[in-house]
Design brief:
globular, 14 helices, alpha+beta, 23% helix, 711 residues, single chain, four-stranded antiparallel beta sheet
Length: 711
């Protein structure tokens, strides 16, 4: 007998200890006892006649295979039939819950999982995993990184600038999150930018042009992806490509228009204009995206006494917010530099950087604390306090921002390190890992798709092969290879959902305009395509693939006008989403319509069920509103719950931004390959599979199983 097989490698041991889990050999034995006890046939066989056992095993196999084909309704039927032959079989209840969950019926899934948990027992290996899944699904509330529910942030990691005698970077002053989970760090002391991944590994260094940076201080990103870096001693701003390659300078050292003495913090407004804090000249300078000087403001004028020691700056809601750490206030201006007044925030000590979060609040550094400011109400909430346990006197925070995984990344200038802070409840609950699909067509070579999220369904980005451990029967596979990271995929699959109501029957020109904008956006995107066009009429249908997009949106394949007051939004949305299930890691249903969903909108599937169906399968819902109407609360809800957005067709900047944004949606989908070494019993055996994921102080686990092809 093998002993301690779960601790076969140092990495395996580290993952187990950090996760706080017991090796789940018990789970493997439980599965084998339930599924292989009679006639070496897979399936639930805890009692009853031999025929029932064989039929239950066959139905269970059919259900697992249907599940891995994304045929969740078929899987539910097979699991229900298997369960009728073997009532109370926990593994069937578990898989039935999985199928209901992926179908959007979360309440039903939870009931199945609770039934399975009561049979497994909460202290068993299977029970602990199932209980963790239940707690996550039952308590999950929101999707995107926000910080508005009173939970504090605590330190979860630290990236020091020194490793032994090796200097990695010195005196960080600013951070800028990237879409892949990494962050750019401005290293003032070592005159460089370093890109650090979620594991604290430096992936890239940029030192500017041939003569290098001259004390870089802050970094921001333009609407076109270009990076802007202020150089404090150089008295200028460097413009870089999206990859960090130097392009040109903005400004020179001096007192004149468009010149700087000690430029520090930067921000970009909604129209792409650049604002720079000119610390030495005590003013703010505004430039267009190509560096042409527009104006300066912030000096004494009228009722405004002038900036004394300007530090952080942020643009949002057609206002410019400027922190002054000498006056201990935050001032507001309009984009033309006109003084609007003070933001009524009390209790500031030494305000430094200001950054807008996705929910419209401001993230600020104030001494050793990170605070959140509501610009509408001026309410301040302390998110957390950064500490340096080695030397508490070495504490000068200069910048904080929220990365794509919802953690705060903080630059500590004095101690030359980056601190990562995570929500306390996320630290406690760990990671939510789900094995989505196991592809066995090329057995023994397997392809495994899985997702990694936090407890609020936010995808965890930036992981690499070293963050994962795949095991079969408790033994780590020896050739696991990460072949795909969903967040790095540069395209998207899109399914268009077209409203066929009385309200849209006379909006043919709007559909034509939408088709032109969509085609134009797709022409500028790689690896992106329209998977299907669904007409949501009284009987939703797919439009013919041989039609042009404009004709498909007009509904030319329908013959007679089938616009109706009884059009079915829910059935159309379900059909549009189903077409995306086997698609790329990034996928979106784009609804084009009036925004008023009609009296039969949720006749068969409720709003919450549709939102869950989309979210649980990684599908983003976006909406383009045509005509002179506005989006209903239901449309807003679907967008909010899945990370999408609502846009008017005739907004000044057009809808191309929405279409292109589908390729920027975060995805926590990861794909692996490995060769199985388990005996297959000619394809009849049930083979167990486990996945562990580790990220700093958090971990998560999931287990499943699969049937190899019959021989």
């Amino acid at each position: 007998m093998r002993k301690n097989i779960f601790y076969i490698s140092p990495r395996s041991q580290r993952l187990c200890v950090s996760a706080g889990f017991i090796p789940i050999v018990l789970l493997v034995l439980l599965i084998n006892a339930n599924l292989f006890a009679q006639n070496d046939r897979p399936g639930p066989v805890t009692g009853g006649t031999g025929a029932d056992a064989l039929n239950a095993a066959d139905e269970f196999r059919f259900g697992v295979q249907a599940y891995n084909r994304f045929s969740y309704n078929e899987a539910i039927l097979s699991f229900e039939r298997s369960l009728s032959l073997r009532p109370g079989e926990p593994i069937i209840l578990d898989w039935l819950g999985r199928a209901y969950y992926r179908s959007g019926f979360e309440e039903t899934a939870i009931r199945q999982w609770f039934s399975a948990l009561n049979i497994y027992g909460r202290n068993s290996g299977a029970g602990m995993l199932l209980n963790a899944r239940l707690e996550t699904v039952a308590n999950r509330r929101i999707l995107l990184p926000v910080a508005d529910d009173g939970v504090r942030y605590v330190e979860s990691g630290r990236f020091p600038g020194r490793f032994g005698d090796v200097i990695l970077f010195r005196q960080p002053t600013s951070v800028l999150p990237n879409n892949d989970g990494s962050v750019w760090v401005v290293a003032y002391g070592s005159n460089e930018l370093v890109r650090i991944d979620v594991n604290g590994i430096i992936r890239d260094r940029k030192r500017g042009p041939l003569n290098g940076f001259d004390r870089p201080y802050d970094i921001t990103r333009g609407l076109d992806g270009r990076l802007y870096v202020s150089e404090f001693r150089g008295g200028r701003i460097s413009v870089l490509s999206s990859e960090g390659d130097w392009l040109f300078y903005i400004g020179t050292r001096g007192l004149g228009r468009g010149q700087f003495i000690g430029p520090q913090h930067l921000t970009i407004d909604e129209d792409g204009y650049l604002y720079a804090v000119d610390y030495g000249n005590r003013r703010i300078s505004k430039f267009d995206p190509d560096g042409q000087f527009i104006l300066s403001f912030g000096t004494r004028s009228g009722e405004f006494t002038g900036l004394l020691s300007p530090t952080g700056i942020a643009a949002g809601g057609s206002k410019i917010y400027v922190a002054d750490n000498a006056a201990k206030v935050i001032y507001t201006f309009d984009p033309n530099g006109s003084y609007l007044g003070r933001l009524s925030v009390e209790g500031l000590n030494v305000p430094e950087s200001l950054r807008f979060l996705s929910d419209g609040t401001i993230l600020a550094v104030d001494g050793s604390r990170i605070i959140q400011i509501n610009p509408q109400s001026a309410i301040v909430r302390e998110l957390g306090i950064a500490t340096n346990v080695r030397d508490r006197n070495r504490m000068r925070l200069t910048c904080a921002d929220m990365d794509k995984n919802g953690s705060l990344v903080v630059a500590n200038f004095s101690s030359s390190e980056i601190t990562v802070m995570t929500r306390f409840d996320d630290m406690a609950s760990g990671l939510f890992v789900q094995i989505r699909n196991v592809y066995t067509q090329r057995f023994p070579l397997l392809t495994v798709e899985l997702t990694v999220e936090d407890r609020m369904r936010r995808p965890i980005l930036g992981l690499d092969n070293n963050n994962f451990l795949l095991s079969e029967g408790g033994v780590p596979v020896n050739d696991q290879t990460l072949i795909s990271k969903g967040y790095s995929y540069d395209g998207a699959d899109i399914s268009l959902l077209i409203e066929r109501s009385d309200l849209t029957s006379r909006l043919g020109n709007d559909f034509a305009a939408a088709s032109r904008d969509i085609n134009r956006a797709l022409a500028e995107m790689s690896n992106s395509k329209i998977v299907s066009v669904i007409s949501a009429s009284a009987q939703p249908r797919r439009e013919r693939h041989d039609l042009s997009l404009e004709n498909a949106l007009r509904g030319s394949s329908g013959g007679a006008n089938d616009n109706s007051q009884r059009w079915r939004f829910d059935l159309g949305l379900r059909l549009a989403a189903t077409d995306l299930l086997p698609g790329s890691p990034k996928r979106s249903v784009v609804y084009i319509g009036s925004g008023a969903l009609g009296e039969l909108a949720f006749e068969q599937y409720s709003l919450s069920e549709m939102a869950a169906y989309l979210a649980n399968n990684g599908i983003v819902f976006n909406a383009i509103i045509i005509g002179n109407t506005t989006a209903s609360a239901a449309v807003e809800y679907l967008c909010r719950e899945t990370g999408g957005q609502v846009m008017s067709l005739y907004r000044p900047r057009g809808i191309g931004e929405l279409i292109k944004g589908t390729a920027l949606a975060p995805s926590g989908l990861y794909s692996f390959t490995y060769n199985s070494r388990l005996p297959t019993d000619f394809g009849r055996a049930w083979l167990p599979l486990e996945v562990e994921v580790y990220l700093m102080e958090r971990s998560g686990r999931d287990n499943t199983g699969y049937f190899p092809p019959l021989e």
